[in-house]
Amino acid sequence: MARQYGPSNIAVVGMEWGDEGKGKIIDFLAEKADVVARFNGGNNAGHTIEVGNKKIVLHLVPSGVMHKDKINIIGNGLVVDPKVLLQEIGFLEKNGIKVNSNLVVSENAHVILPPHIEEDKKIGGQIGTTARGIGPAYTDKAARVGLKVYEFVDESIFRKRYGNEEFYQEYKKYADELKQFVGDTSSIINTSIDKNQKILFEGAQGTLLDIDHGTYPFVTSSNAIAGGVCTGLGVSPKKVQGVLGVCKAYKTRVGLGPFPTEITGSTGEKIQKIGKEFGATTGRQRRVGWFDALVGKYAVMINGIDSIALTKLDVLTAVSKLKICVAYRYKGNVMKDFTTNMKILQNCQPVYEEFDGWWDDLTKIRSYDKLPNNAKKYLKRIEELLKVPISIVSVGPKRDQTIVARSEFLF
Ligand code: GDP
Ligand code: IMO
Ligand code: MG
Fold first, then answer.
1. Whose alpha carbon is nearest atom 16 of ligand 2?
2. For a FRET experiment, which of 223, 244, 307, 350 has its CA 20 to 30 Å from that of 206?
């Protein structure tokens, strides 16, 4: 068969409520990439990468940083807490991971300041935010009173606006330190696209946390969908070549909001425990649910997903009966498509198909063919329902615990 060449850039997006394993997948793919560029969110994100015996949780720095010689970009679509970013850079350096000219922060990203965090702590509880000041910083951006990174690092502007604030002296130091990383990221990316370099566009959160297309108001305040690449990095939609959806083999959700396939009882607790489902940012327990094909189909539609990276399949080992939700029942009607109407979503009942489980440890398997038959049946049914192929199966948190099933969608 003739060698098929894949896309030269790929948007990697979460297909549900975040924490799908985007960090792990991006780190895996980054080996062949030139640039990794984050396009949305802030330090509400927690992207976990495990290589050998090193485990790193990234909140702002893109997931290409564990590889040498990659350019990591923090796009204009982010809200950046300078204190957290500098702490993260310090932590990486301490762990032997160099952060210097390989990191560029957009001059047009917005800055999170202490009042944003205070405000989030006051009002964020209603939807269970991460209390990192994300919502209030994006609110200021939309209200056109926000502070951009280039203004933050320009002492005369920053002093004029915030010189009388209590935090000024402390933050002035962060501004000085941050300056070296600030640049025109849209030009860097577009030049890189013109050179046909390989780029990963890194999404934070997931489709159902998207401010426009998620389960509003239980969402974050940015565009987590593939469309966010264009606004969050300054890339034309004509230039985005591939979209990879990262999707958990079961579902999880941190924070409040409807979750039709949520599992209560011992099976849920078992998956929660084996999957170590605790938030990478806040340490909160993640709620666990069965695979929801309505959510999956919706994410495929909204993002234009070409193929799926299915993560955490290993966690489902020894669950004797697995379920996939194929429809919702609402007031006597059967719905086959997802809805963001909260009234329906909060009151619908899932309709399930059942699958026999498997007992084999998957964590050492490295080829699709060697997966147990029942695992393959489960994956096949997901592909059938979502009408999209699975290109990657992840069977553990480590970089090498990864099976490439269809390489034509990847680099
Ligand atoms: P992200 O926000 O999408 O990057 O995901 P998180 O890092 O917040 O959460 C995913 C968690 O699952 C992390 O602890 C990862 O180390 C872990 N993980 C990722 N892929 C797999 C997998 O295939 N199997 C297992 N057991 N853990 C995984
Ligand atoms: P990653 O990138 C999971 C959730 C919060 C809350 C809602 C709004 O690691 O997948 P916010 O602080 O953004 O205003 O909170 O969104 N949330 C996430 N859940 N993973 C994330 O990021 C999340 N970022 C925000 O728990 O329900
Ligand atoms: Mg996370």
1. 220
2. 350
